[in-house]
Amino acid sequence: MTDFFSGIEKLQYNPDATELAFRHYNPDEVVLGKRMEDQLRFAVAYWHSFAWPGGDPFGDATFERPWAGDTMDKARLKADVAFEMFDILGAPFFCWHDADIRPEGATFKESRRNFEEIIEYFAAKMESNKTRLLWGTANMFSHRRFMSGAATNPDPEIFAWSAATVKLCLDATHKLGGQNYVLWGGREGYETLLNTDLKRERAQAGRFLQMVVDYKHKIGFEGAILVEPKPQEPSKHQYDFDVATVYGFLKEFGLEGEVQMNIEQGHAILAGHSFEHELALAASLGILGSIDMNRNDYQSGWDTDQFPNNVPEVAMAYYEVLRAGGFSKGGTNFDAKLRRQSLDPVDLIAGHAGAMDVCARGFKAAAAMLEDGTLENKRNARYANWDSEEGKSLMNSDLASIAQTVESSGMNPQPKSGQQEVLENIVNRFV
Question: Which of 27, 141, 211, 389 could disulfide-pair with 37, CB 3.0 to 4.6 Å?
Fold first, then answer.
């Protein structure tokens, strides 16, 4: 045991608590036939909680963490503290990048040894801990070698290094029983077209993802391969801009049946969409896998990765998840970090506890809306005429035949209200 969270007890569900506790998240409460814990499948992000030092573009780190430093002893201490926090929160899952959990070595081989040693350390801890791995991923954006991308890099050696890194991380995810493996192309984009070959880079990215899928099947990894879209950050143009863009990419390279999406609230907003739009679109395309839950500061226009605190927004997101059938292998990963003025250990606990409560409130509201059925009934009624014989025949007809029918029938269609305000009032009854 470490003393980092000294004095902080395991959080309990207590709706009347005035101190640190879960006031809305009861992991054993049954909603839509499943325990809340099994519905929401919360995960702690290792990078923001334990690897981020509290810096920003205008100032140095503000957090003084006892595990800060590039040694294996520090990496093990970080893991000790992380699993203590998982216990306090009762978190069922966590997520990591390779760079979050091991020190960088002087060579790939040295980095691999460090990484594999920490994976063994994780495996031993997981034997006596309830927390499982929701997903693993590779950080192929922070180190200067990735300044021009990983899979899309103009240098074949960077492509090779990246492929070797993903193999290592996928092996580790498989070893730890990970539910998914995520690829986020943090620098898979370009700064200027003056030095960029779009066709070549797209082909490289497509082949890279095909290799990942092939290797997944080779090692018998049964988890999902997830791509996480993100626009304009940090590159001027990202190839994985949003759900629609990624789906077109998957279709181009024959991967639409192999790869799903990990969708983040903050990224959806930066793409000019709502979170629920991206979730609904992914669900309609059959590629909704998992979510990163956070929020942006809407005044900054940047991906600020704050903990969620807007129940109506969260409710609409979970409504789309539930309409899609809920999570299978995916879950709710808190890709969120403290503000750099929040220095104390209790802040880490409070940030997650508050977010879990917000998600619980939003999820229960979403479940109640779905059970009530009014929204779905009104949606179905709006499109009901398409289920008539006349409506069905239109989809199998041609322009000339349709034009003849319109003229001979004397039809004079009139617009019908979409009732947006009525529908929003219905939502407001629940949130």
Answer: 27
Mean pLDDT, the chain, integer: 97
171 CB neighbour count, 10 Å cutoff: 17
**Banded pLDDT at 392 (limits 50, 70, 90):** very high
Q: Which domain holds residue 415?
A: 377-430
The model's pLDDT over 289-306, given as tens digits with 9 standing for 90+, comes to 999 999 998 888 788 999
In this structure, the answer to whether residues 278 and 421 fall within a common structural domain is no
Q: Which residues are annotated as a binding site?
A: 228, 264, 267, 292, 303, 305, 335
256/400 same-domain check: no
Which runs of E-coded beta strand occur in 105-233? 132-137, 180-183, 189-190, 224-227
Among 24, 48, 100, 352, the active-site one is 100
Same domain? For 237 and 329 the reply is: yes
Q: What is the dihedral of CA 70, 76, 82, 88, to 10 degrees?
A: -150
The CATH code of the domain that includes 294 is 3.20.20.150
What integer pLDDT is reported at residue 302 of this predicted model? 81
pLDDT tens string 211-235: 999 999 999 999 999 999 999 878 8
> Are 121 and 197 in a shared domain?
yes
Residue 100 known to be catalytic: yes
**Binding site for Mg(2+), residues?**
228, 264, 267, 292, 303, 305, 335
97 a catalytic residue = yes
State if pTM tops 0.70. Answer: yes
As a whole number of angstroms, the distance between CA 133 and CA 96 comes to 9
pLDDT at 118 over 90: yes
Number of domains within the chain = 2
What are 208's two structure tokens? 């890279």
